[in-house]
Amino acid sequence: xxxxxxxxxxxxxxxxxxxxxxxxxxxxxxxxxxxxxxxxxxxxxxxxxxxxxxxxxxxxxxxxxxxxxxxxxxxxxxxxxxxxxxxxxxxxxxxxxxxxxxxxxxxxxxxxxxxxxxxxxxxxxxxxxxxxxxxxxxxxxxxxxxxxxxxxxxxxxxxxxxxxxxxxxxxxxxxxxxxxxxxxxxxxxxxxxxxxxxxxxxxxxxxxxxxxxxxxxxxxxxxxxxxxxxxxxxxxxxxxxxxxxxxxxxxxxxxxxxxxxxxxxxxxxxxxxxxxxxxxxxxxxxxxxxxxxxxxxxxxxxxxxxxxxxxxxxxxxxxxxxxxxxxxxxxxxxxxxxxxxxxxxxxxxxxxxxxxxxxxxxxxxx
Length: 366
Prior knowledge:
Blueprint: E1 6-11, H1 17-31, E2 35-40, H2 42-51, E3 56-59, H3 72-78, H4 80-101, E4 105-109, E5 121-124, H5 139-149, E6 154-157, E7 177-179, E8 200-203, H6 210-223, E9 230-233, E10 248-251, H7 256-264, E11 269-271, H8 275-283, E12 289-291, H9 298-311, E13 314-315, H10 323-334, H11 350-362
Parallel strand pairs: 1-2, 1-4, 2-3, 4-5, 5-6, 6-7, 8-9, 8-11, 9-10, 11-12, 12-13
Helix pairs in contact: 6-10
């Protein structure tokens, strides 16, 4: 006999961003008495095991997406046969898990095959529209994306409707949606500026070979700055294939407390403009951030430009990352006074109220 209400929670293994933003939802559901079964693959499962207590874990097929071209839409279309094959396997596996666990509802963060026949299913995404290489809506790719999202009961959009960080990515949604607010596993704390020890902390993430290429460019920059001290969070336990200068402290895979400690001990942050990172740093109200979008991920490139135009954050194209450009732009960011940007007060717990409303309306019919 089932003792607790159950939730099947599918999470895409495509960098740690999807897992990171799902963690507060998982923990809240556990607080409310749900048994959460986390379904993913690879290092995302290992990551969530470190962050979440008392969950059950199941393995799904991996997508292993690669970015060879500058257009996200083109990358998806060229790999469409492989993606559809994995989607079919994922769907079959999820149906088996549905029969095994008989969930009360399901949540999927960008796992298109993780919707149930027997229970309401919610899809988490900040992309209703897929952008082409010109960073305009790609009609065909967007329609395909929307077709699969519409198979779910509703769309959860992790964005603040006032800030509207997603912009074009969530424009003209034609499906039942709930705006969750910004999702982050971090909470803003008082920062002691006397304990700043690093010029910058770089946080790496995302698919290979882009992650390693970016790592090599950063290390070249570090070697050109021997008088400064740097922190590098690699986001992988893969063996380093390049010599690290002695004035660089290297961390491989670290938990959220260590990340926040290093961020607060650094004058600035260098990272990808992945959407989860953007939400994290907005919640932490960090002003000195350099976003370097992954080449070929038009969504990241769009977000980097949008953050620069509307919120004053600096960004640098991956192909422009060299010692001279990094030295110039990081010096500009380090000189930035906190009064030069508006302080943003955001409530990282807002999603709880919206999630409760969605469950009342679509799961419990109240």
